[in-house]
Amino acid sequence: MKTPKEKPLKAFEDLSVIITGFPKADIVGTGLLETYFNTIEAELGKFVFENLLNAILKIKIINIEQLTEGEYSNVSELIISSKYKQSIEKIIQLWYLGEWIVAPYSDENYIISSQSYIEGLIWKAIAAHPMGGKQPGYGTWGFPPLTYSPETKSN
Amino acid sequence: MSKKNEYDVVIVGAGISGGIVANQLAEKGHNVLILEAGVKKDFSFDTYREYLNTYYENTVKIPNSPYPQNSNAPQPLVTDVDGIKNGIQQFNEKGYFKQYGPAPFQSTYTRAKGGTTLHWLGTCLRMLPSDFKEQDLFGIGKNWPINYYDLMPYYRMAEHEIGVSANIEEQSYLGIAFQKDYVFPMTKIPQSYLDKQLSKWTKNAVFEYEEETFNYKVVSTPQGRNSNPNPKYNNGEGYQPIGAVGNPDLGQRCEGNSACVPICPVQAKYNALKTLQKAVNKGVVIKAQCVASEIMYDDNTGEIIGIKYKEYDDFDALKYDENCFYKEKIVVAKRYVLAAHAVENAKLMLASGFKNKNIGQNLMDHPVLLTWGLAPEKIGAFRGPGSTSGIPSLRDGAFRKNRSAFRVEIGNWGWNWPTGSPSADLSDALSKQLFGKDLRKALLDKVQKEFRFGFLIEQQALSNNCVTINEQYKDALGNYRPIINYNITDHEKEGMLAAKSFSKQFFKTIKGENKTKYDSNNGGYIEYKGESLWWQGAGHLAGTHIMGTTKENSVVNKEQRCHEHSNLFLVGCGNMPTMGTSNPTLTMAALSFWAAENINKDLEQLKN
């Protein structure tokens, strides 16, 4: 039995993979998918959020972790569209920083939780670790950086 | 009302200085009370974890962000500092300080048990021998009534107490001497990959400025954070690293959390809670939520006869309006110590009607000129302690007659300080409509190459840079708020010009990209001789009650005792007549050991 939320949650997961550039394993691995779903729904409103998810679902994508050129330009169009641009930016910021950003430097901005700060994808994106969390260990800062290009396929 | 002489010593302020004095005197069997203005907090690690969670969840991760904001013992915040409008520095009314400028004072401190060491970086540089006699050597600045060699044994004690990691061979430069056979408690903290690359890329290169040349030698920084104990320490006895208070197995080594400022999650970095807990175990009493409001003294003899303080029940700012609830109390002791911080000590003495005209004057900081850019290849920013190395070659020289010396601090956390990266880089990338893997790649390629310099510019002690008080400006408990007058001299601006030139030549030498760009609307922006400069505070507040030879030129004598009040000692960076280019905590700690020794002598004499 599918719960009523499962379908939109799956759509949100796909959207998240596409716009953040992180594979499903990283997205789900934060443990925050549902939390963020609820945050976004509350902040943007159910109607706006649903529209956004439907718009993404309409784009036919074979492998969300490896967009083809055609798929990429379709997503790109959606992302720069005046209708969705702001919402998508906020969702990327939420995934990257764990923070809901109403406007730059606004007092209304808030970090969802300690966990959301620590799981911010930005740290992974820059091949570092969250400041104050997931410590890499004594002396590791003296080693050459472990960087990898997101283009590289591990398989 | 307390009983007479209930305590041998009353100390105002539970930070590193107060902690050291308390612990040393308790060791000698004296009865010590510490009055702490900040909120009551126990020594459990759970309490510390609350600070950490507050940090995680704070959107603005400034140095004071993990610690309680408290209207009964307010503290300055870096976000209080206003910007520049139409070329004029603005001063708002929102912060704890009332500032009159003309330059903004941008440094802060923490009013909580543990004090500002809760969010210090941990840099433990000794001062240079020349820093103690600047007036004699350079005709500018002041002389200390003691010299480097007088302080040397106390530096050792401070390095033991804090637990400093460093190697002697690297630290013996520009006259810094160590006692024979001395080693630091722990071996040096590994230098970052960035440090090592910069060292490699600048090998044999020199910085040329005003017909002088200086090397770019990258030197590991002595740090108050745990590394490997040196087996040779203390004549082969070794050293046991001190872990987290309330969880001593944690923090025995630095784990690379990259959050020393504002909070080390495991307390591998020293904070004063470690010293305070030892003191409490020896019987020292800490009474928190007790804000000293007046030092009472005998008009004829100058002798202190008691300290008046306000004990408050509730620290929640929101519950307070004009009817704050507190009890006024008086405590009496044989000796008194002010260890409340340079600004708070001065404020308290002014509020008590002390007559010495030097009180509050000579406020100093290290204005920090920031520059930033990209390394020619990925160096792995945002890893390790905030800074693991510096370039000390410009800390000393005959040029100090003409311009300020500075120390170059190499920052390991990308452009976090100057621009707010990596969040700022994210905003940047989003404004270019990047998403998905393009976004990730753009961030990775840029941030991995980011680094910054902080040039800690030496500032002279001047009477016009000062802390004062005025009836008009008081806090929720009716205590004075500090009024700050502050400016930067041309001597210091000349130092900043040299620093900027250093940075330009450095980026050229390493074939990196200098990305330094100053916003003329930001507080601390100035133009000097056609160059734009931008400086920030270092949090190195000092000099508000300097030591010297007479009451005309100073507040305390070389024993750290007030000239006019023989049973009152002052400790903290306020006693320093110069700061050189060292972060002042280590020197302050050394002076606190020296002060404790002198107080103990007094108390022993009283017994006889």
Provide tags for this entry.
A: 155 residues, mainly alpha, globular, B: 608 residues, eight-stranded antiparallel beta sheet, 25% helix
Helix/strand-derived class of chain B? alpha+beta
Gap between N and C termini of chain A = 34 Å
SS-based structural class of chain A?
mainly alpha
Cα-atom radius of gyration of chain A: 16 Å
Helix content percent band of chain A: 40-55%
The ordered H/E elements of chain A are HHHHHHEEHH
Low-confidence stretches of chain B: none
Per CATH, the architecture of the domain at 7-80 and 99-184 and 222-363 and 540-607 in chain B is: 3-Layer(bba) Sandwich
Overall mean pLDDT of chain B stands at: 96
Number of domains of chain A: 1
Protein chain pair with the most extensive contact, residues per chain = A-B, 53 and 53 residues
What would you say this structure looks like, in words?
- The complex is a heterodimer of chains A (155) and B (608).
- Chain A has 155 residues and is mainly α.
- Chain A has helices at residues 6-20, 24-29, 33-44, 46-58, 69-80, 85-97, 114-118, 121-125; strands at 99-100, 110-111.
- Chain A has one domain (6-142).
- Chain A contains 8 helices and 2 strands, in the order ααααααββαα.
- In chain A, strands 1-2 form a two-stranded antiparallel sheet.
- Chain A is globular and about 50 Å long.
- With 608 residues, chain B is α+β, with helices and mostly antiparallel strands.
- Chain B has a domain at 7-80 and 99-184 and 222-363 and 540-607: 3-Layer(bba) Sandwich (FAD/NAD(P)-binding domain), CATH 3.50.50.
- Chain B contains 14 helices and 23 strands.
- In chain B, strands 8, 14, 15, 16, 17, 20, 21 and 22 form an 8-stranded antiparallel β-sheet that branches. Chain B has a 5-stranded parallel β-sheet with strand order 9-2-1-13-23, with helices on one face. A 3-stranded mixed β-sheet of chain B has the order 5-19-18.
- The mean pLDDT of chain B is 96.
- Chains A and B meet through helix 1, helix 5, helix 6, strand 2 and helix 7 of A and helix 2, helix 11 and helix 12 of B.
